[in-house]
Amino acid sequence: MTSPGPESGLLVEIPQAEPAVGRFRERLDSGARLGVPAHITVLYPFIPPAELDAGVLGQLERLFAAVPRFAFRLDRTSWFGQGVVWLAPSDPGPFRFLTQRVVEAFPAYPPYGGDFEDPTPHLTVGDSPAVDDLRAAEESVRPLLPIIGEVTAVSLITQEIPGGQFSRAAAFPLA
Questions:
Q1: Mean pLDDT, range 17-44, rounded to an integer
Q2: Which of 5, 8, 25, 112 is the residue whose CA sits 20 to 30 A from 49?
Q3: pTM score over 0.85
Q4: What are phi and psi of 123, to 5 degrees?
């Protein structure tokens, strides 16, 4: 979904994945080219940056502070059609819970603009029409799995101009 102005999003950064997927994301992931780190999306698009005030930030801080930290394990690759290869968490439940909490608090902002009824938590390795490159990336990443870590915070990323680079505007610690 494309908005007329700058966008924002909420995500769980997965720095543990960068050694495995970083070089592929640089070439094959449109988000990486906009400065978005390896991540699993919590909610995108979110409130336009100009509308992110102290009240919204405080609400997000309280919302995420009530959610316990959790471990994750990215243990397999999967595909959306022939154009997106991604890493799957062995238990998507905690990521779905984060999304559910935000949607309940901000119902005007459904995941992916409401384009998908039940969004799948995932870490994009590449989204490209170059299917052969995506397959090669998948084959290179598979032996590096699983990627294991702990989710301790949710990041808010924002753009200053439409289509521009994203940067982290805030991070909200989990309990």
A1: 97
A2: 25
A3: yes
A4: -115, 115
pLDDT of 2 > 50? The answer is no
Sequence-distant (6+) residues with CB within 8 A of 151 are 12, 69, 70, 71, 72, 94, 174
pLDDT at 1: 41
Q: Quick one: 121 exposed, middle or buried, by C-beta within 10 A (0-12, 13-18, 19+)?
A: buried
Q: Are 53 and 24 in contact (CB under 8 A)?
A: no
Beta strands in the chain (DSSP E): 8-13, 39-43, 70-80, 84-89, 123-127, 147-151, 153-159, 166-173
Coil/strand/helix, residue 102:
helix
DSSP state of 112: G
Within 13 A of 64's CA, how many CA atoms are on the CB side? Answer: 24
Give pLDDT, residue 43. 98
DSSP label at residue 119: P
Amino acid at 133: D
